[in-house]
Write a sequence for this structure.
């Protein structure tokens, strides 16, 4: 496991800790989206959405391009591999717990 104390790396875990930012990532997984459309779909101000997108951008999870007067945001999912690897570390624990639950359910029948 990598040491998370390395402050020079983008904080992917901190970026996805917020539910609105996870919702933004889910929306961007569907395709590039203008910031105004993201704000409308989440019923938030452009300023509030921009703050969330800034955090996601600093974590390397999104990028944007200017298209006329609009900013179009696009998902960059590569940094999420770090999250996936961390979660996978705990998968054997949950698999064992589910097996235990199954055995307990069978015993109570």
């Amino acid at each position: 496991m990598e040491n998370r104390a390395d402050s020079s790396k983008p904080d992917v875990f901190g970026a996805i800790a917020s539910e609105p930012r996870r919702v933004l990532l889910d929306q961007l997984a569907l395709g590039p989206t203008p910031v105004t459309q993201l704000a409308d779909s989440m019923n938030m101000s452009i300023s509030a959405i921009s703050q969330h997108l800034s955090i996601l951008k600093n974590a390397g999870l999104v990028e944007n391009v200017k298209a006329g007067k609009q900013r179009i945001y696009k998902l960059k999912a590569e940094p999420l591999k770090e999250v996936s690897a961390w979660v996978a570390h705990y998968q054997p624990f949950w698999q064992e717990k589910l097996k235990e639950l199954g055995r307990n359910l069978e015993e109570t029948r």
